[in-house]
Amino acid sequence: MKKILLAAIGIAALSAPASAADLAARPYTKAPAPMIATIYDWSGFYIGINGGGGSSHKCWDNVVLGGGAFVGREGCHNATGGTVGGQIGYRWQSANWVFGLEGQGNWADFSGDNVSVLFPAQRNRSKIDAFGLITGQVGYAWNNVLFYVKGGGAVVGDKYNIYTAPGFAGAGTLLASTSDTRWGGTVGAGLEFGFAPNWSVGVEYDHIFLGNRTLTLNTPAGAAFQTDRISQNVDMGLVRLNYRWGGPVIAKY
């Protein structure tokens, strides 16, 4: 019996190394590469160009020469046309929120006219030939897509003319004119898409509210002709292209 027990122990000892050797080696597995999310950073200075169209709604009310009491309404018209210009600004981003300051200057050709209701022999004409905006911005970014709202001050260069109306002798003759630089406010909103590390393109809507202004129009000889209280606001849509520096695309692990 003792011999049988010793033989069994010997067989088990001899077979143990062989069994371990027969086990397959554990395969090597490479650790997965870390995930990298590309984040578009809107921070930095930018400069760009813009172009589009707009309309300025103007209403003329005649008052006593020199700016006295109300006399009568002369009617309204929309001065429409195109505009091109440029902008420069700075933005800084905190998480998904983007804040900015911007200055914009544009050449414009928004013009229109109407025959005066009060003086049917006269045609009142207006034109915006330039405007500027100084605004602050608050936006929210989804990576390389930015939606923002803006608001601030505006300045507009206006020209006003009175001509002899069609159907009257001397139709088209300049009777009186004046020019005006008017300050007001502006609000707007835009959507911008970053299509390259430093380039973005977007669309923007702006409204300029300019209130009323009482102006005296003078004859070509310089004599006072008539005085009108003219109200004005502007609506326009722009396409914008910007180049930004100082805030590259970054990788976040």
Continuous helix count: 1
- Ends: how far apart? 70 Å
The oligomeric state is single chain
- Computed CA radius of gyration, to the nearest angstrom: 37 Å
Helix content: under 10%
Q: What order do the helices and strands follow?
A: HEEEEEEEEEE
Which parts are unreliable, with pLDDT below 50 for 5 consecutive residues or more?
1-23, 248-253
Number of domains: 1
SS-derived structural category: mainly beta
- The fraction of residues in strands falls at over 45%
CATH architecture: Beta Barrel
What number is the mean pLDDT? Answer: 88
How many DSSP-defined strands? Answer: 10
Largest sheet: 8 strands, antiparallel, barrel
How would the global form be characterised?
A: elongated
Strand order of the largest sheet: 2-3-4-5-6-7-8-9
Structure description:
The protein is built from one helix and ten strands; from the N terminus they run H-E-E-E-E-E-E-E-E-E-E. The strands form two sheets. It has an eight-stranded antiparallel β-barrel with strand order 2-3-4-5-6-7-8-9. The protein is mostly beta strands and 253 residues long. The protein has one helix spanning 2-22, and strands spanning 37-39, 44-63, 70-94, 97-115, 122-142, 145-164, 174-196, 199-218, 224-245, 250-252. It has a single domain (37-252), classed as Porin (Beta Barrel). InterPro entries: Beta-barrel_OMP, OMP-like, OMP/PagP_B-barrel. It comes from Bradyrhizobium campsiandrae. Its main location: membrane.
